[in-house]
Amino acid sequence: MSSAATPPVDVHALRLDDARALLEHDGTELPAPADGPTAYLQRIIDGLCELSLRDPLTGLANRRHFRAVLSREIEIVARSGNSALLLMLDIDHFKKINDTHGHLAGDKVLQAVARCIASCVRPQDTVARYGGEEFAIVMPDCQAAYGETVAERVRQSVAALSIPASPVINLEITTSVGGAFAPVWVRSTADLWIERADTQLYLAKAQGRNRVCIDHQQVISVSPEEKSLLFGNLALADSAWGDLTDSSTQRFS
After folding, report:
1. Which helix (H) or strand (E) is 77 found in, with range?
2. Model-wide pTM > 0.70
């Protein structure tokens, strides 16, 4: 029994003007509808998906994408035991920049810092705008010495920037950096990892700003729920093994 052929898509009947304008404004090259409706629609869908994961001001990953990457990395670390580092960065006294020089100057600062951070990391690292003047870096397969080096490189590189706020004013800024390594062999949560990195960021701020503080503790207290996830299957296996041993003993006694 053959199924009916799927009718061709009429792209002219779809309301794609806004989507196309959005992608073209972002610089995305779209094929012409005449090149094939399927390829045309797929490119629009792919482009919109990409835009939905990117911060429009800085071009970095947005918070949604960052959270997805962080959750995935938590799972990888729990299974493999590989070391991974989360860095949280905050521009020092950013409100003063907006209040003194205006929000346009503040946007220029955010864009310059975003480019600077992205230039300091590896292709496999994820740099995101976490919110406001705060940025985040997820660094998989990151040993302690390398993580410290990158964090310090970012801090120094940002401090060396000279950002034009107007034709006659250049701004020099600093950042505070907090970091935490993911606990290995433990199925933790993204929220706990962020909380530990944020704690170090607040510590860097409290110690005078323009500095790096990293938590190297990789073993954290495990909640009852996490213990159940970690050891529940082992307990069931032990119980089953005990039952099998008892029955075997009875059988051969």
Report:
1. helix 63-80
2. yes
